[in-house]
Write a structure and sequence with these properties.
The complex is a heterodimer of chains A (376) and B (136). Chain A contains 12 helices and 11 strands. Chain A is an alpha/beta fold and 376 residues long. The longest helix of chain A has 16 residues. In chain A, the strands form 3 sheets. Chain A has a 5-stranded mixed beta sheet, sandwiched between helices. Chain A has a 4-stranded mixed beta sheet with strand order 8-11-10-9, with helices on both faces. Chain A has a two-stranded antiparallel ribbon with strand order 5-6. In chain A, strand 2, helix 2 and strand 3 form a beta-alpha-beta unit. The two termini of chain A are 18 Å apart. A 5-stranded mixed beta barrel of chain B has the order 5-6-7-9-8. Chain B is 0% helix and 38% strand. With 136 residues, chain B is mainly β. The chains are: A alpha/beta (376), B mainly beta (136). At the A-B interface, helix 4, helix 5 and strand 5 of A face strand 3, strand 5, strand 6 and strand 7 of B.
């Protein structure tokens, strides 16, 4: 077994940019990532690409003109977790010594779709009955408020924190801070979630080189890479708990030999504000039901005891679906390397990324990936 | 009434069977090997693949696990509308809501939508039986 390191990570700025072509979007972070890894195109042994709607042949089309063809290339999809699963595959291939250097891509151009709602599977019976993605999370929020007394204000605070951090991140789509009142007064999407409590789509891309040697500067080692599909069932299941996130996080902690208390910085899946509250609990940052108190105390601010979503999270960085996994990886990598200018967590040595994907009938989430990164 | 292999992949549209002149039934499959209940019914257990089991009739009343009122829907849909997850016996159903829902309210399931589609293809509707007291 080899070790897998994040040699480099680079992002394209996220935004709604329908005039940005696929290659204009993807080439700059790819070139930057390969160069910063100290490599040339010939050193890249394989490519793994994650996207939700921008296939077919996303890697081949996105990399056209970069001399990265003619080698093992995998295009992969797991809804919102697509490029986290791509990262996991790349890490596994490097650890198993199949390849030495793998280029991971995450990309999405949702501005091409012309609708703000993510397309869901048409053959899904719940979709036919009127399910939309915000409703899945909205029902979790209603349940969490009922079971644990979580308040609308606590949910909204997640968005306030997210936008405050996004204002510090040059790659974020939404860079204006928002107030609690603005969040609560924004347009209702699905009760209780208002517009500013829902991540937007847009366009974005990221690239990372996973290799068997560290890059220049602080070595960022992938200490754990855990993934799973959700558990399909037609039986009742508690919506105020993220069963899948708990399971995958526990596997990642066991693999890395750490506990939640060892984490210095986290990028987790805040597709909606309730997603962050649920993830606090699933990742073991607090007891079940205490997620609202965690955000209330300010513990997850950049200066707090466990900073969460220092890059703004999905809520303010934006959620061009296939790009999110790599964006989370990049933020944690930069935090561990001391390069997160203006939003740096002091002495960040152990970081975690958490991504969940999609909703279909019978699943709580369809997919989840958790990575633990350690600065060696 | 019998289920054949085509029903293995039929999805939730195979949920209701309406003997002529009678109310539609909600049918599920209980596995004789692992005792899990799955919905909609197929003639094989989706968890352990045993074909030993049988069709069971679900209760038509259940409890609201959660709900939401959707204000932004897919193009062409009329908003707002309310949806819920309702637990009927061992099965969770997704349904449109009629009435004022609250968590743990009791509801009755109908399988014919308001526009009268045949039960096999209509979304489920839950009528809330306990009206909410004041504002939620």
């Amino acid at each position: 077994m080899a070790e897998a390191y994040v040699r480099s990570a680079a992002l394209a700025p996220f935004g709604h940019t329908p005039d940005r072509s696929l290659t204009e979007l993807v080439h700059p972070p790819v070139v930057q990532a390969v160069r910063e890894a100290g490599l040339s195109p010939g050193d890249i042994d394989a490519v793994v690409c994650g996207t939700y709607v921008n296939g077919p042949l996303a890697a081949q089309r996105a990399l056209s003109g970069l001399g990265l063809s003619n080698r093992p290339t995998i295009n992969t999809e797991n809804a919102c977790a697509s490029s986290s699963f791509a990262t996991s595959l790349a890490a596994t291939l490097v650890r198993k010594a199949v390849y030495r250097n793998v280029l991971v891509l995450g990309l999405e151009q949702l501005s091409q779709l012309g609708t703000s709602l993510l397309p869901l599977a048409e053959d899904d019976p719940e979709v036919r009955a009127g399910m939309v993605m915000p409703a899945v999370y909205a029902m979790r929020a209603e349940r969490h408020m009922s079971v644990y007394g979580t308040t609308r204000g606590q949910l909204a605070k997640v968005s306030v924190k997210s936008h405050a951090n996004g204002a510090l991140n040059p790659y974020a789509r939404h860079r204006d801070p928002v107030t609690l009142a603005q969040v609560l007064d924004s347009r209702m999407i699905a009760t209780p979630l208002t517009l500013l409590q829902c991540s937007s789509g847009g366009d974005g891309a990221g690239a990372a080189v996973i290799g068997d040697r560290p890059g220049e500067g602080t070595a960022v080692r992938i200490a754990a890479s855990a993934t799973s599909a959700g558990r399909e069932t037609s039986e009742p299941r508690e919506l105020a708990r993220s069963e899948l996130s708990s399971k995958v996080a526990d596997e990642a902690y066991a693999e890395a030999g750490i506990a939640a208390a060892d984490l210095d910085v986290i990028e987790l899946h805040d597709a909606f504000t309730i997603g962050e509250i649920l993830a606090y609990e699933a990742l073991g940052l607090c007891e079940p039901g205490e997620g609202g108190e965690l955000i209330d105390r300010g513990d997850t601010e950049i200066g707090g005891s466990i900073p969460v979503n220092t890059g703004g999270g999905l809520l303010s960085r934006g959620h061009p679906v296939g790009a999110t996994g790599v964006a989370q990886l990049a933020e944690i990598t930069w935090q561990l390397q001391g390069r997160a200018d203006g939003r740096q967590v002091a002495d960040a040595r152990v970081g975690l990324t958490h991504t969940t994907g999609g909703g279909i009938a019978g699943y709580d989430h369809a997919a989840c990936a958790v990575h633990v990164l350690v600065a060696d | 009434m019998s289920l054949n292999d085509a029903d293995m992949s039929a999805g939730a549209s195979a949920h209701a069977s309406q003997p002529p002149g009678e109310r539609p039934l909600l049918l599920a499959w209980r596995c004789g090997a692992c005792d899990r209940t799955s919905f909609p019914p197929r003639n094989r257990c989706p968890w352990c693949w045993s074909e030993d089991g049988g069709v069971v009739v679900l209760p038509m009343e259940g409890e609201v696990h959660s709900f939401t009122t959707i204000h932004v829907g897919r193009p062409g849909t009329t908003v707002p509308y309310t949806v819920a997850y309702v637990d009927v016996g061992p099965v969770r159903l997704f349904a449109r809501v009629e009435g004022e829902p609250r968590i743990e309210a009791r509801g009755r399931i109908r399988s014919v939508g308001p526009s009268g589609e045949p039960p096999e293809s209509a979304p489920l509707v839950v009528e809330i039986l306990d009206e909410a007291q004041g504002h939620g």
